[in-house]
Structure formats: C-alpha cells, structure tokens
Design goal:
It is a multi-pass membrane protein. GO terms for molecular function: transmembrane transporter activity. One of its GO terms (cellular component) is membrane. Keywords: Membrane, Transmembrane, Transmembrane helix, Transport. With 489 residues, this protein is mostly helical. It has a single domain, classed as MFS general substrate transporter like domains (Growth Hormone, Chain: A, Up-down Bundle). It contains 21 helices and no strands. α4 packs parallel to α11, α5 runs antiparallel to α12 and α10 packs across α20. The radius of gyration is 23 Å and the shape is globular. The two termini are 24 Å apart.
Amino acid sequence: MATHDSMEKEHAHPKYVDDHGLDSDSGHIDEFLHEFTHAEQRKIIHRVDRRLVTTVGIMYCISLMDRTNLSAAALAGMTRELNMVTGYGYSIVTLVFFISYIIFQPPATVTVRKVGPRVFLSLITLLWGSVMIGMGFVKDWGTLAGLRFILGILEAGFFPSCVYLLSTWYTRFEVGKRYSCFYVLGCVASACAGILAFGLMQLNGRAGLTGWRWIFIIEGVITCIIGIGGYWALVGFPDDAHKSFMFLNERETKMIMARVQADRGDAHTEPFAMAKFIRGGADIKIWGYALIFFGTTTISYALAYFMPIILRENMGFSVGAAQCLVAPPYVFAGIVMYCVSWIGDKYHIRGPIIVFNMLLAVIGLPIMGFHSNAGVRYFGVFLVTAGANANVPATMAYQANNIRGQWKRAFCSATLVGFGGIGGIAGSLVFRTQDRPTYYPGIYACIACTIMNMIIVGLLTIRFRIQNKRADRGEVVLEESGQGFRYTI
C-alpha cells in the first residue's frame, strides 16, 4: 500500500493554470463555474453533444457495419464462392480480425493521445475503408482472412479511443447517456446493415462481380468518404478543443475542463510514462470491468455474426426475410439502451443497470433457443439483442464512473475493449456449423456469460460499498478514494 505522502502526491489536483488560465484549486474552480448560468453550461454541453457524440457515433456506425457484414456476405454467396461451406474457413475469417484487434489496442490508445483524435481516427477510418474495398476482389478465403487481420489492426484504436475521448469531455453522471447515444448509432448500423446488404446484393452480375462483393465494395467507399469527412468534423481532447476549427473559445474550454476537474479531479493530462500507464493493471477492478465487457460482447458479436444465419436455418425464414428481420431487434435494443442509460445517469446507479440488462438476455436466450414456435423464438431474439447491446454502454459508464486519472483511464479503455475483442473471438465460435440448426451449445455459452456478469457486478458492489464507507470515515484506501471521490454503485 502506498504511503500517506505518496498518496497525497498522487491525489493532488494537477495545475493547469499556465496552459488554460484556471487554477485547479476547488474554490477557484467553483468561483469560475459560477460565472456561467446553468442554461449557459447546458448550451455549451449540447454544442459538444452535437459535434462530438454525433460524429463519433456516425463513424462507429460504419465501423460496426464493416466488421460485422460477413454474415450478410455469407448469405449472399460468399461461402460458396470462396469454398467455406464446410470446415472452419468462415470461423477463421471472423476470428483473425480479433487477434490483431486485441494486440494493437493498448498502443493505439496511447497514440490517439499523442497524435490527436482528429488525425488518428479519420486516418484509420480512411485506411480500413480501403481494405474493405479490397475485400470485394479476393479470390480465396485465405486472402480474405489476411485482409480481415489488417482490418483488425486499423480498427483496434477506434472504439477505445472514442470511449476515452468521450470520458474526457463529460462528468461522471453525464457520460452514460452519451455512451448510449454513441452506441445506439452502432445499433442503427446493425439494424440497417442487413437491409443495405440485401439491396447491394441486387447488384449481382454488375461489372462481372457477384452480389456479396458489392457489399464490401460499396460499404468500403462509404467508409472512405466518412473517414475524410471525419477529419473536419471531429474534435480533439478538451485541452486542445479551442484549436478544432473554433469549436469552442478559450473561456468555454476552461468551463468544460473546470466541470470535469470539479467532478473527478483529472481534467488535466499528465505527461505520459509507460510505468504509470501499465500500473493501472494492478487494480483488480479494471479486470472485473473487462470480464463484464467480455461476457457482453460474446453475446452481442455472436448475434451480429450469426443472427441472419440463425433466422434462416433455425427459424425457417427466407434469405430476404432473414436479412431484413435483423433490424427490428436492434431498434428495440436502441430504445432499451437509451432508457436504462437515462435512468442510470439520473439516479446515479450503474451496477443494477448491468444486472437488469443481463436479466433480459438470460430470459431471452432460452426462449430463442428452445421454444417450439419460430415467432416466439424471434421474440426471444428481441430480449437477447436488447440486453446484450444495452450492456455495452452500461459497462463503459460503469468503468468511467469508477476510474480516476487520465492514463489509468486510457489503460482501462484499452483493456475493456481488448477483452471485448476476446469476446468477439468467442462470439465468432460459439455458434458452430456442426451444431446447426439448433445451436444449443452456443445458447448455453451465452447464458453462462450473463450469469458471470451478474456475479462480477455483485462482487464489485460489495467492494465499492466497503471502500465508500471507509472513505466516509476519512480513510484514503484506493487511488480513486481521494478528495470527495466515491464509487458509483
């Protein structure tokens, strides 16, 4: 355990008066914030919402579409043309993406802080759009797997960088709704991806290319356009926001940083040190968040990769119907997602939201897997899709509320999304070809993930309550238990 002197040094609020003209002393911060009325603060925050949340949401929308369009291409004839009908070819193609996606998470999260979100995020989006176009011209599944590996390298930095970027702009009980809005656009992508893919399939035969190839080519072109536009629309971190095409003036920038500083005391970015970055791994709760995210993404990726196939093979829908019926469950998931995020922010709760989402999934999975009626099984898909996808922003808000320090926050974002990538690997394997058409082992695996998540939340809740009571008695126990900080249960 750290000594008292080292703990005080660790928790001392960093000064940024030289850069921003604002003393980090809490009294000076309060005095500065009182210069703004509540209406003025909300107006500035809403401007941030429109510029930041909308832009990263649209970019994440195309990101999720690009990484999960394999199932649509498979139904459009890709597996037959590339000899993946039997064997493990399709599973390998889905899996290799996550190998590079996981490996390159931590360095990418550091890079975005050094290079800046505008350059970094727009560049990698443009590059992976080019890779997507190339996927439309492959001749064998080995080449497709190689391009998917490269896609994983490029996308590795996107999601954790967005999670990290959003967390630097908002206070702890504002971030839940913003994560939800950011991720709900991803649900829109998943909802529309099947419909878009079905439309692109109709280009079959144009320019001598089969329909599934047009899915990759057209979506790749759209990605490149969004990547280029992202450079002009994105903003940087709050401490350089005033440089982002006059997005905020100097006084408004100071107001944003003062609010974050007053809320959790880490608005200022400390100089990077590898030891400080890696030291975050010693905190066991970071791995608890990561395991929750793993369990959540195992289910959500399994649905993303296999839902059209399950609707076709398990429930008997036609190819066109299977592509289009993907949309309604994701629309429902978006509604649930925003509602529970609003409740979490309003009532300052995080763990119960995660448990509720997992209860939806654990109720829906047996219905989806075991009921005799296809229509009822499709209702189960709604519950599972809502529970799994609503839990993604809920988990992000859970960790964002209970982590303090810029580089520890960056490390937590990387490990969180890295374990999400491991969940992607698991999700690509749980519904195995040999288990068709019932896919019972995959159903059991997803149920196990929901139960694991609820157990971890229970353990973390007990830990947080103990630490909050000790902090109430004036005992500084953990890094986050500094001046005025309490864990969000």
